[in-house]
Amino acid sequence: MAxxxxxxxxxxLRFFADEMTQQQLADLxxxxxxxxxxxxxxxxxxxLEVAFKISWVFEKPLEEVxxxxxxxxxxx
Amino acid sequence: MDMSFKEKSTWISLASTLGIFGYYFISLxxxxxxxxxxxxxxxxxxxxxxxxxxxILEIVFHTLLSATNHKAAEMxxxxxxxxxxxxxxxxxxxxxxxxxxxxxxxxxxxxxxxEVFESSLSAxxxxxxxxxxxxxxxxxxxxxxxxxxxxxxxxx
Lengths: 76, 156
Prior knowledge:
Helix content of chain B: over 70%
Largest sheet of chain B: none
Shape of chain A: globular
Oligomer: heterodimer
Distance between the termini of chain B: 16 Å
């Protein structure tokens, strides 16, 4: 299974945002809860639009939520 | 199992396709006992019955799914659903294209060298080209739904 080179702090940020649930974040961003789950696990890299929306929800700059980490990338 | 609305919908489509067209292909073998003049009519009837059945099943199950997952049904597809569908469509299309090319080669072969083709399977199986096209279509749908499910299970 490929591990994507983009890591994120979504789970941590949810916890510090009054323990916001995945469903609440999904509703605010306009994706399914399963997509939020896939993003948190690093299995799916969101589009730029969704990444910006997530940053906007947590009131953080994009680079504080998502980080490019090429050493993370592992192929199948 | 934690599944999105689209994943549940894909499972329904896969199960309906496998169920109905499994029945279609198994029924075809039963026609070998029929007199030759009745076979074509029986096959056409079976094909029509299978298509009507799959449409009814899809409508019934998807209505039930939407009724029990009202909010998710209203939301529709998100970006991950769309990407997964695009990737899965590519696999399905490849299978369908291979099937169509096989049928074209067979039709050209029948025109250019009828003695070779007519002495083989074509002579024994009525409406073979239609079956090959149908089989390619079903297989491409099964590949499409299966790859969608695999992507959903993997995350993407």
